[in-house]
Amino acid sequence: MRLGVYAALLYVSWNHNLLGLPDRIGWSRDGVRAGALGSEANLVAARVARPDLPALHPLILVGPGDHWQPYTSQVGLTGIVVAAVPLPPEWVVPAAAAAMALAAAAVVAAVLVGGQRWLGPPAGDIGCALAAASPAFLPVAPSLYWALGLMLLPFALVWCLAPRAAGRGRCALLAAAVALAVLAKCLCGYEYVTTVVLAPVAAAWFHLHRAAAPLGRRVATAVVVTVAGLAGFAGALGLHVAQHQFVMGTDGVAAIRDRATARTVADPTAEAGASGSRVRVAARCFWGFFEQPAVSVAGGFGRVRADVPLKWVAGAALALAAAAGLARARLPRAAVGLAGAVVLGLAAGVSWQVLAVNHMCVHDHLNRVVFVVPFLPLAFLAVGTAVGLLARWAGPAALVLVGVTMAVNLATAPGRAADDDADQRAAEAAVADVLKAPRPADARVSGVVDSALPAGAVPTSNLADFGWLDLRTGAAADPGALVVQGWVAGGPLRATRPATRVVAVVGDRVVPCDQLRFRRRDVEAALGRPVPGAGYVVRVPAAALATGGALRLFGVGPDGAVTELTAAAGAPATPPAAP
Q: Are strands 562-567 and 445-454 parallel, antiparallel or unpaired?
């Protein structure tokens, strides 16, 4: 029962964002979503769209002009499996993404149920509420590329099954299961492999401390599970080399070696395009992750906005661990064991950031996931354990609060969408009036155009995130359309949704366009106040552009103020990534 409740709450939060969390770093949305594909899903979608390729062909990267090339940095297990399903890509890819989100939710739910059993209420309930409110899971839970469920599986296997692995035979079976889980994860990519391999050590420590096992046994167990993980990693490398040789006809050893060198020992300043000493750049990148939100409260898509950064969660978890160590004689062994597991879990996450420093420096929008495996679930259980010392009823209350918030957000989403449509129509009418009777720009609305590119030249990772990827081809759905990005601000200071609208004009006609609104933290920092939905991405259809005439964009305030948006000074030639 509890497993089902936890998994359901986590799934609808991570896949459909019913808590209204910021779903990315930097450019983030906080609305209810459907059909989310997750980060980097374009690589898998492009592979699924090519049934003519060999069955064991790796993923595909589609570039400008629909030029594609094999993505040989991994075997591409998810692409191979999903491509084998005899269904149209536009059906199977979203379904597979939803299945990935459900798998990740089920794995974390199993971890939290175990925590509730061994630590007592309300540890699991509070942990579930916090995990549901964590934006760190949203970009990766449904992702066919990152396979979060597999990333968490080695840790979850030891966490859930170690108490039953009494005797050498069962221990060997558990170690084999860990090796297979790491193998499967590495076939989907080697990213974060040190974290994945070391995470089971934290789970083993927890159970061995509960059982008052001697230090020697703990060390031996840590060695066994680590060696098992390394065996799975080695197996994936061997299969990857074989794929290069027999499917692609290339030197797999050289390809893997070159990729590993670029992500580990190469100069991070060059890789990240940053300036300064290697150590200073790496340190700045490392600390930046602790400024990212680990828990967010949106309260209905912006009506209440508060982020709890990772540094606060890490600091609180380490403080609880230190307190448990000092008061270990007066606390249950499970609570003290959890304190050690929290520290080991954080160390597992940090291991990738240190050993793959270049990957860390260029993936500030992605690498928060290293703290998901397994630090954040353990930290959330630690918070739940601490709350349990004060009030055991808090766990069910937290779950009810999460459920009520989701229900309210879901029930009010159609009304918000209708309000947005009405505001957009009013803005288009205001721009039409300005076209008939031109007047000076209104200073109450400000904004710029950062970039404008044909959809076929926009990275397919962005198109997948925007929902503008044709799953039948793995390329832009309307390659001749123009994708324009920028920001616009104006209207009341305490707005809870975008107060300004963006209207496109081709020639002398207002053109209805697909558009998305994002939170832009950089704009908010520059203006010194929250600006819901300051960022915009507009797709002007190719059919509208074909009629001729110049394209212009206008920002429209809620009171009818109209300003034409012009190109920003030094605007990039390519759109900024949408993390």
A: parallel
Taking only the tens place, the pLDDT of each residue in 413-452 is 888 889 889 999 999 999 999 998 888 888 889 899 999 9
Long-range Cβ contact pairs of 212-215 (< 8 A, separation 24 or more): 212/333
Q: Which CATH architecture is the domain 419-567 placed in?
A: Sandwich (2.60)
How far, CA to CA in Å, does 150 sit from each of 53, 179, 183, 200, 561?
A: 26, 12, 9, 13, 51
Length of the chain: 579
Long-range contacts, 517-524 (Cβ 8 Å, 24+): 517/29, 518/24, 518/27, 518/28, 518/29, 518/578, 519/22, 519/27, 519/28, 519/29, 519/30, 520/26, 520/27, 520/487, 521/26, 521/28, 522/26, 523/487, 523/489
Using CA atoms, how far residue 424 sits from 442, 466, 560, in Å, is 18, 19, 11
DSSP reduced 3-state for 131: helix
Q: Distance between CA atoms of 448 and 371, rounded to whole angstroms? A: 36
State if pTM tops 0.85: yes
- Give residue 221's pLDDT band: very low, low, confident or very high (50, 70, 90): very high
CATH 2.60.40 intervals, the chain: 419-567
